[in-house]
Design brief:
The chain folds into two domains: 3-54; 70-294, MetI-like (MetI-like fold), CATH 1.10.3720. The protein is 73% helix and 0% strand. The protein is built from 14 helices and no strands. Helix 1 packs antiparallel against helix 14 (259-294) and helix 11 runs antiparallel to helix 14 (259-294). The radius of gyration is 26 Å and the shape is globular. The relative contact order is 0.13.
Length: 296
C-alpha cells in the first residue's frame, strides 16, 4: 500500500470517527430529553408539594413520601379499574390474537379464488370505516351497551397488526406447508403445529401491541359504559386527574393534597405494568416488527 493510500485511509477514519462523535452527541441529547422528564415524573410522584415548588427540575426528592400513592389508592374506584382492565386483557387479547392470527394465515395463502379481493377489502378499512354512530347502534341491537362486551367486541382485528402478521406468514416457505398437507394435516393443524411455532417473534410482537392497547383502553369505555362498577383503570385515572385539577385541596387528615404529585402517581401506575411486560418480549419484539415490515 502506497503512502498516499495510507494517508487517505487515515483521513477517512478520522472523518468517520468525527461523524460518529457528532451522531453520538445528538443521540445523547435525545436520550436525555426522554430520560430526564421520566425521572422527574417518578421523583415528583414521591415528593411533597413544598419540595416540588422549591425545585425547577426535580430529579431526586430529599424527603420522599408515599402520601401521593396513598391518597391515590384511597380512591375506591382504583380496584374496580384494575379488575375491569384485567378482564379486558384476559378476554380481549386472546380473542384479538385468535382472530388476527387466523385471518392473517388465511389471507397469506393467496392461491384460492378471491384471496386478493378479501385482502384489499380488509386493507381498505384502514382508510374508511363506518364511524362510532353505526357501531353504537350495532351494540345497541346486540344488547351489549353498558357492558364489558361492548368494549371487547369493538376491537376485533386491528388492520395494521393484521398486515404485519400476514406479511410475516408469507415469509414461511410454501414447501413446508405443502409437505404437512401431503402428510394429511388440515389447515388448523398446519396453523398451530407448523406456522405458529415458526412465528414466535411476530406473535410476541402483536401480543405486546394488543396488550398495550387493551391496558390503555378508555375511549370505547367512555362511550359504551355508564355503570361505575365496570369502568376500566384508564378511565378511573382520567376521572382522578380531572378531580385533582378541579379541587386543589381535598381535606384528608387536615393536610393539603399535592395534586401534581397525584397526577404523576397516576402516570406511574399506568405505565409500570407495561414496563414489566416489555422486557420478557423484547428479544422477539425487534425481530418480529422488522421481519413483518420488510416484505410487501
Amino acid at each position: 500500500m502506497t503512502v498516499a493510500k495510507k494517508l487517505r485511509k487515515g483521513k477517512g477514519r478520522e472523518k468517520f470517527a468525527l461523524l460518529d462523535a457528532v451522531i453520538l452527541f445528538f443521540l445523547l441529547i435525545g436520550a436525555a430529553a426522554i430520560v430526564f422528564p421520566f425521572i422527574s415524573v417518578i421523583a415528583t410522584s414521591f415528593a411533597t408539594h413544598q419540595e416540588f415548588m422549591d425545585s425547577r427540575l426535580l430529579l431526586w426528592p430529599q424527603n420522599p413520601t408515599l402520601d401521593n400513592y396513598y391518597r391515590l389508592f384511597q380512591d375506591l374506584r382504583i380496584p374496580i379499574g384494575f379488575r375491569t382492565t384485567l378482564t379486558f386483557l384476559f378476554i380481549g387479547v386472546p380473542l384479538n390474537m385468535f382472530l388476527t392470527t387466523s385471518l392473517a394465515y388465511g389471507l397469506s395463502r393467496t392461491n384460492f379464488p378471491g384471496g386478493k379481493f378479501f385482502f384489499y377489502a380488509v386493507l381498505i378499512t384502514m382508510l374508511f370505516n363506518g364511524g362510532i354512530v353505526p357501531l353504537f347502534l350495532l351494540h345497541m341491537q346486540l344488547g351489549i351497551i353498558n357492558s364489558i362486551w361492548a368494549v371487547i367486541f369493538s376491537w376485533g382485528v386491528n388492520t395494521f397488526y393484521f398486515i404485519i402478521m400476514r406479511t410475516y406468514f408469507t415469509t414461511i416457505p410454501d414447501s413446508m406447508i405443502e409437505s404437512a398437507k401431503l402428510d394429511g394435516a388440515g389447515e388448523w393443524r398446519v396453523l398451530f403445529n407448523i406456522v405458529l411455532p415458526l412465528a414466535k417473534p411476530i406473535i410476541a410482537c402483536i401480543l405486546l401491541f394488543y396488550s398495550v392497547d387493551r391496558w390503555n383502553e378508555w375511549w370505547f369505555s367512555m362511550i359504551f359504559i355508564r355503570d361505575p362498577s365496570i369502568i376500566p383503570l384508564q378511565l378511573v385515572l382520567r376521572h382522578i386527574v380531572i378531580d385533582s385539577v378541579l379541587a386543589h385541596t381535598v381535606p384528608m387528615d387536615d393536610l393539603p393534597v399535592f395534586t401534581g404529585g397525584i397526577r404523576m402517581a397516576t402516570v406511574i401506575v399506568t405505565i409500570v405494568p407495561v414496563m414489566c411486560l416489555f422486557p420478557f418480549l423484547q428479544k422477539y419484539f425487534v425481530k418480529g416488527i422488522m421481519i413483518g415490515a420488510v416484505k410487501a
